[in-house]
């Protein structure tokens, strides 16, 4: 919050506190000539509205406070909240006030561009975006954010981006071209993405990051063989660059070529992080031959009591289903902070061996160990609950959570885990109770606000209440994909289907997630756009075929 607003709020709280004893009716005090005093009441009302998730009311009160105080920071705040509330009329008024008070610079231009996009004023939006791209203060980042979040649909954003490229307004900066090329991919505009990448290759020949973008673009266009050719050419440059090796491995991983990803990570100097990543990739590839070779290589150098190496060897032994060896490695972790995750992993291995009672006994010992850090003892309760869940022992699972909360009253992670467990069992009342308890302890917990808002939107008909909770989370993190997804979902539940579609498209552009894809597919299906809906359902299935939201959407639509 701007410094001016903070000072107003502090004064307002003091005024309200002093006024509490004198609530009886009395003669109305004439309006003050002091702009700070005049702004106190609407500013307090705005803050309370934000805390209640009533963004429409917050926009109205912030605008009134900005007018009363004649304060540029409040005018900017009023503009941003109105845009977040999608109250374009008030956003326009706040913008006018912001400009009149001397507002200028990239943030003002970005707000003007966003409002112009929403209003369908393409020429004005183009003008503001052009000014942002010409700004020497990295204005292209603001332009990127506007196109990623302000446009109503991908086609609108892509058309504007293409105009900006055609008119030669893109800055001569590699990072900007890479970012806009990535945006074109996220907007699912393959032709535009290919054109941008080709231009970047022309402008910045031999730059590894450009080749990576090219490989990514080819992969997303299902041209996997061509993507591999690019990566093979790039790999020759990677031996002395750990970051480049990691980026190439990521692309191979995305192509499903886990062996190639592990091989590229194996080039050059190695450390425990690279060994761990290679082991994870080989385990996922179920390449036990390569994993055994890596395991043998590592354990030859494990004679000295290195806690990190022994912890890693224990995890690799788990991957190889050598559970007794894993237990030996974990028992041999000599000390240090690795001692506690080793104890937790050992309990998990015992459970895998069918020695569930022994696993729980070990966890009880850790829970009672006064020398253990609180985080390790807390995690012992969480792991115990998880193991009981795997066994279908619902009563024992809830008992673990209850004992954990008795030992660590109001521990947020235990409350959150229990809330999710209640939700999985369709006990929405208990899930809500735990999430609300978190919000009593930490009123601004973004995770709890979003989880509770989404749960109410998805599993009840209390949509107005859900919207207020989600709006509180949006006010804190307006560009969080999970929160945007929740917002789009509650708009859909409220019958605002077109608004929901725009938000869900934006969420999916920010994060390719199975649940977001399922929501987007369902909304498209309801709107009659069934081929596109099937495409998103298929993408969601590729990401996580067992996602619950996806299963429900497919069952509901029959897709």
From TrEMBL:
Cross-referenced PROSITE patterns: TPR (PS50005)
Source domain of life: Bacteria
Stretches forming TPR repeats: 514-547
Keywords carried by this UniProt record: Repeat, Signal, TPR repeat
Endpoints of the signal sequence: 1-24
Coiled coil spans: none
Record's keyword annotation contains Repeat: yes
InterPro entries (UniProt xref): CellSynth/LPSAsmb/PSIAsmb (IPR051012), TPR-like_helical_dom_sf (IPR011990), TPR_rpt (IPR019734)
The keyword Transport is assigned to this record: no
Family matches, as PANTHER family: LIPOPOLYSACCHARIDE ASSEMBLY PROTEIN B, TPR REPEAT-CONTAINING PROTEIN PA4667
Name used for this protein in its record: Tetratricopeptide repeat protein
